């Protein structure tokens, strides 16, 4: 397969991009974090045959699962490329395995700050070229139906997985590093930031039309720690991507920052240069709008747990949410990823109700 052809089909539904840029929309755009995932039987079928990271690394498979939710849910206004945030630690030389029912596992996590020196920064982005190939293939196969979102994990979130060796309820090893070795922590965060900037630029060159940065572990940080260990890097990522795209004469794309649990710092997030701020369900839409002002798009934020309610309840909650956010500068989504046992019908009701709401 030749992935070099960048003459992509014309985009027919640009609601998501218009909302991100602050332009008027006919309907509120909607997509769902983890919309390609285990709640879909057709995703399970692909996973029954292929290991998780094999799906990520095989453009035809990554493209197929990216397109699956679009076939089922006609109201979706975006797709997000199927991959994972942990492909970056892999490209830096770390082993990451996906264990069924358990999630990601690093057999050899970072145990000592001296091991930061073993990370292979050089060539990391070229080792991620398969993500670019998947994006390019998907841009062709999606036939301009909706835009394609690229993404990355933010430096603090990636560092947490690299130190903990997987998901962690307490992040206690990571917090220990923040306290004992702040200089080394900043060195690692800066390294990750450099790789992330080039990785995101590569995704845009491959065809990504909007980029989302997942700071999924912000819920472990106080406002002070968020200011020290997250926001400087989030800001560098935004300005770094913008500057390189300018230098290379590539059209700019809007960017979203999603700091889960970062509701205490929306004022700071509003100054990072991102067009869109993602909100988890703990944040009140009206309060959030007051804090960030009128020049930023908000995304979110129904509790994923609400999708276990009755269809009529989901509809009421969704319409209520959309009314609170309003039609201007708003992208409807959940407040975090959809969970594996969610009934498929709930997704239909959620996406349909967003379009009905205003
Ligand atoms: O076996 C499987 O199929 C594993 C389930 C799964 C899926 C479907 C994982 C493992 N990752 C993914 C895909 C994925 N991951 C996407 C795909 C695109 C889409 O949204 O449709 C995206 C955007 C991610 C990003 C991701 N991976 C994040 C950030 C978003 C978030 O949820 O906060 C994080 C934290 C990860 C790590 C990860 N990968 C997988 C799991 C179960 C986890 C979380 C582990 C944990 O902390 O407990």
From TrEMBL:
What's one GO-annotated cellular component? cytosol
- Protein EC: 4.1.1.37
Q: Name one GO molecular function term.
A: uroporphyrinogen decarboxylase activity
Main EC class of this protein?
Answer: lyase
Q: Does the keyword Ribonucleoprotein apply?
A: no
Q: In which pathway does it act?
A: Porphyrin-containing compound metabolism; protoporphyrin-IX biosynthesis; coproporphyrinogen-III from 5-aminolevulinate: step 4/4
Cited PROSITE patterns: UROD_1, UROD_2
Q: Catalyzes what? A: uroporphyrinogen III + 4 H(+) = coproporphyrinogen III + 4 CO2
Instruction: Enumerate the Gene Ontology biological process terms.
Output: protoporphyrinogen IX biosynthetic process
The protein's location, in the record's own words, is: Cytoplasm, Cytosol
Q: Which domain of life is it from?
A: Eukaryota
Annotated ranges, domain Uroporphyrinogen decarboxylase (URO-D): 29-38, 149-165
Q: Give UniProt keywords alphabetically.
A: Cytoplasm, Decarboxylase, Heme biosynthesis, Lyase, Porphyrin biosynthesis
| Quaternary structure note | Homodimer.
Tell me, what does this protein do in biology?
Catalyzes the decarboxylation of four acetate groups of uroporphyrinogen-III to yield coproporphyrinogen-III.
> Known HAMAP family for this protein?
URO_D
The similarity annotation says: Belongs to the uroporphyrinogen decarboxylase family.
Name the UniProt record assigns to this protein: Uroporphyrinogen decarboxylase
Look up and give the organism this protein is from: Danaus chrysippus (African queen)
Lineage runs:
Eukaryota, Metazoa, Ecdysozoa, Arthropoda, Hexapoda
